[in-house]
Amino acid sequence: MPSPASLKIKIQIMCGSEIAMGPGKADLLDAIRETGSISAAGRALGMSYRRTWLLVDAMNRCWRERLVVAVPGGGRDKGAHVTTAGEAVLAAYRAIQAAAAGAAQPGAEQSLLPLLRDEPLSPDP
């Protein structure tokens, strides 16, 4: 059953043509912080191992400092952690998300709903 129409605000911070930060990457940083592991964070979010590592790589390439550091092996500091820079980027991104959500006036989407179809038309052949 289709969900009712709603307003969705999606914030993406671009680095050239690459998405440096977006909602999925922010959620991944949260999950890495919680699990201490890139692969465990991906599993928790239902992402493939490869997709998870590609997202971490993209974040680390886009920002001046790495957002995630992984330490392989079996030592005490093994696993992954969100760096100080990663924490700062994540906090700033979450603040932008909150500001954008707050900027949308309650009920603003009501003027759009009468103009919106219940389902999209099929694409032209």
TrEMBL record:
Organism: Sphingobium quisquiliarum P25
InterPro entries on file: Molybdate_resp_trans_reg (IPR051815), WH-like_DNA-bd_sf (IPR036388), WH_DNA-bd_sf (IPR036390)
Protein name: Uncharacterized protein
